[in-house]
Design goal:
The complex is a heterodimer of chains A (454) and B (247). In chain A, 69% of the residues lie in helices and 8% in strands. Chain A contains 13 helices and seven strands. Chain A has helices spanning 12-21, 23-43, 76-87, 90-100, 102-107, 110-123, 144-164, 167-197, 204-244, 258-278, 286-375, 402-426, 434-441, and strands at residues 48-57, 62-63, 74-75, 124-128, 134-141, 384-387, 445-450. In chain A, the strands form two sheets. Chain A has a four-stranded antiparallel β-sheet. A two-stranded parallel ribbon of chain A has the order 2-3. In chain A, helix 4 (90-100) packs across helix 7 and helix 8 (167-197) packs antiparallel against helix 11. Chain B has 247 residues and is of the alpha/beta class. Chain B is built from eight helices and seven strands; from the N terminus they run ααβαβαββαβαβαβα. In chain B, strands 3-4-2-5-1-6-7 form a seven-stranded mixed β-sheet, with helices on both faces. In chain B, 43% of the residues are buried. Classes of the chains: A alpha+beta (454), B alpha/beta (247). The A-B interface holds A 2-3, 11-13, 16-17, 20-21, 428-432, 434-435, 437-438, 440-452 and B 40-44, 47, 66, 69-70, 73, 198-199, 201, 203-209, 211-212, 215, 224-236, 240-241, 244-245, 247. Strand 7 of chain A pairs parallel with strand 7 (224-232) of chain B, so a sheet runs across the interface.
């Protein structure tokens, strides 16, 4: 049968051989799938269908044919279609549910009500009868009582909605919408305020800037601390020198103080001259006396300049300390900002969530308003709906159609299993008939010998 | 039994009226007449007789496809055919079966010196003393045995002695049970010495690709006569199968 694909035609014999060869597989698939379906069908609950006919009475100018296109008239078909749409609209169905199950309806929140109405839409169906003003409405439910009760309340719900659809009711809805919108506006303002007050936290990039600034400030602070230490050291050394007034020639001066350095050099030069003259002249000679006087004058000048330098260093220290204080303040603020970020962010999240909830509510209100708007199309003052007779409690279930569905599954599984057998046969790669051998090998099959059991 | 007698009478009448050759033709199953042999082998016996193939071989693509079963059954049916139509004595053997797959006759409980290899070790004027007569009903049986230089050497010896000493002349038909053509080259060499070589294909078992390859090899020998479809499974009722085949 592997040669099936190579052969130009597929004979009935091939088909029969496939059927008989895979007989057990086919029977197994069909039996299992049919049995599973039958089991599921037996377990499936009964569904009952209630039915009601509703007459649409109107005094409006309705044209009876499509050809009649006189001004101000609408066709019967258009009217009946729109009336059916309205009868099965969410507003009417919700009202019907409210009339049927008042306690359950009262306990529901708006979202749950929407879900319930959606479920009812799946169960109810309506169709205008051709060339009549009758709408045939059906409702399917597992509970036969519920099916009839719901349909019997349908027309009443429509009438009540119609009576509610006065300017007062619409105004109430408008007021509700306006109040909700005002609420939404105030929430938006609050959200904006929080966002403005925490602009620096609004994005990750800004947080990164904050962190960078923080590290920069910390670096600057470290540098200033270093400078303070240096200045304090310089001031301490100057104070020590001024207190002790040691020999000028042995004082190690800072590199940046050139004035003191030049005075020191002058003093050292005078000392050298004094030493050179001490061998030649007596101590009380005029030259040596003049040198001693000069040395003491230079020494005085040196310490005076040092005193002024010490004062300048003290001022510098104060300045650096002030800068450090300012920097510390900035750093503290920055760190406080970083600490506040999660708190503000969570508040913003809560506000946004609340705004989403209010938006949902507003959408529900808008939807109700649009349905009210839909319902006031046309001259509804002259239109009424009337039930031909109340819906009876159905006695026989309409679904599931156990025998039919099981039969469908039976035939589908039969087809599927035969297809599977055919595919298996195509991929087997062995000979099944003498014809296949002849086609493949191009030689005649002289005889065919049956399989021996032993 | 009346059907049996009627059919036999018809065949006898036909044979007397117009003999078609040295051997009577096998009656076709479609005619509804009596067949002396297994119904399944009618076509094969008829084919061999009609084409006057005196040296016939059976091989397979690979082992297990039933070449031994087919060759043994065929030899037995051929002998049966002669027994009925010639009314010959049981000891007047017409069919020799050379079993190339039996290299060790002791495993079958046969004497070790009754083999083709033993004959070629000490060739004499006749092969008759080396055959085993009581293994298959009406058929002389000759296992090939184990030659000193392997099976190819035996095939070469057959080629030489067949003409020189008229090796197989005492028998009208010699049937060779050959090993699988894929694994044994001597089958191809032997098939060139035969009048017809048949490929045995097992139903729903032999792979198409292997069968095609075996067919190509046998076509090269020039003696490829046809295919025997062995072990056909009863997928559908026989009457239905034949009815559909006839269409």
């Amino acid at each position: 049968m592997a040669t099936l694909a190579k052969r130009s035609s597929f004979s009935t014999l091939d088909f029969l051989i496939i059927l008989f060869k895979h007989f057990r597989l086919i029977v197994a698939i069909v039996l299992v799938s049919t049995a599973i379906t039958a089991l599921l069908m037996l377990r499936a609950p009964d569904v009952f269908e209630a039915q009601v006919g509703i007459v649409f009475n109107t005094t409006s100018n309705i044209r009876l044919t499509e050809k009649d296109r006189s001004l101000g008239s609408i066709s019967l078909r258009e009217t009946m279609n729109s009336e059916t749409e309205y009868l099965l609209s969410s507003a009417v169905l919700e009202k019907t549910y409210e009339l049927t199950y008042p306690e359950r309806y009262a306990a529901m929140d708006p979202k749950e009500r929407l879900r319930t109405v959606g479920a009812i839409r799946g169960k109810i169906s309506g169709l205008p009868k051709r060339n009549t003003t009758i709408i045939e409405v059906k409702y399917r439910s597992q509970d036969p009582e519920e099916a009839s009760r719901f349909l019997n309340n349908l027309v009443q719900a429509q009438q009540e909605l119609k009576s509610q659809r006065d300017p007062g009711a619409t105004g109430m809805l408008q007021d509700k919408i306006q109040a909700t919108r005002a609420d939404l506006d105030s929430i938006n303002l609050l959200v904006n305020e929080v966002q403005l007050s925490s602009q620096v936290y609004s994005s990750d990039r800004q947080i990164a800037v904050l962190v960078d600034t923080n590290s920069l400030l910390q670096n600057q602070q470290r540098e200033l601390q270093q400078r303070i230490l240096e200045q304090q050291l310089v001031a301490a050394r100057y104070a020590d020198f001024l207190a002790r007034k040691p020999d000028i020639s042995h004082i190690a001066l800072p590199d940046d103080n050139s004035v003191l350095r030049s005075i020191q050099e002058r003093f050292v030069a005078l000392q050298d001259r004094q030493r050179s003259l001490q061998g030649t002249y007596s101590d009380d000679s005029v030259e040596l006396q003049a040198l001693v006087t000069s040395l003491s004058a230079v020494r005085e000048e040196f310490f005076q300049v040092m005193a002024s330098s010490a004062a300048a260093a003290g001022q510098q220290l104060q300045l650096v300390e002030q800068k450090t204080r300012v920097l510390l303040e900035k750093l503290r603020r920055n760190e406080a900002d970083l600490t506040r970020f999660p708190e503000v962010n969570s508040r913003l999240g809560a506000l946004l969530q609340y705004r989403e909830g209010v938006n949902d509510l507003l959408r529900v209100l808008y939807r109700q308003q649009s349905e009210y708007d839909l319902s006031v199309i046309g001259d509804r003052a002259n239109q009424t709906l009337e039930m031909i007779n109340p819906a009876l409690v159905p006695q026989q279930p309409v679904a599931p159609r156990r025998v039919l569905q099981t039969a469908i599954v039976f035939f589908m599984s039969l087809l599927a299993s035969i297809t599977l057998a055919y595919v298996l046969e195509l991929s087997s790669g062995v000979f099944e008939t003498a014809q296949a051998v002849e086609d493949s090998l191009g030689a005649p099959v002289i005889c065919t010998i049956r399989q021996k059991r032993n | 039994m009346s059907v049996y007698r009627d059919a036999l009478k018809k065949v006898d009448e036909k044979q007397a009226a117009a003999p078609t050759g040295p051997f009577p033709p096998v009656t076709s199953p479609e005619t509804g007449e009596f067949d002396s042999i297994d119904r399944e082998f009618i076509g094969l016996v008829d084919h061999v007789i009609q084409h006057n193939h005196s040296l016939v071989g059976f091989t397979t693509a690979y082992s297990g496809d039933g070449a031994s079963y087919v060759s043994h059954s065929f030899a037995r049916n051929l002998a049966k055919h002669f027994g009925v139509f010639r009314s010959e004595a049981p000891d007047n053997r017409q069919v020799l079966l050379v079993d190339f797959t039996c290299t060790d006759p002791a495993r079958l409980g046969l004497p070790a010196d009754h083999t083709l290899a033993a004959y070629f070790q000490n060739p004499g004027p006749s092969l008759a003393p080396f055959v085993v007569s009581n293994r298959i009903e009406g058929v002389d049986y000759l296992p090939v045995g184990h030659g000193p230089n392997g099976p190819l050497d035996l095939v070469a010896s057959i080629t030489r002695y067949r003409v020189e000493t008229r090796l197989f002349n005492p028998w009208e038909f010699v049937v060779f049970d050959c090993p699988p053509v894929h694994s044994h080259y001597e089958t191809y060499v032997l098939s060139r010495q035969l009048n017809a070589i048949y490929l045995v294909v097992k139903h729903a078992s032999t792979k198409v690709e292997l069968a095609l390859k075996a067919g190509e090899i046998l076509q090269g020998s020039g003696n490829f006569a046809g295919v025997v479809l062995n072990g056909r499974k009863h997928r559908i009722p026989d009457w239905l199968y034949r009815r559909m085949q006839a269409r």
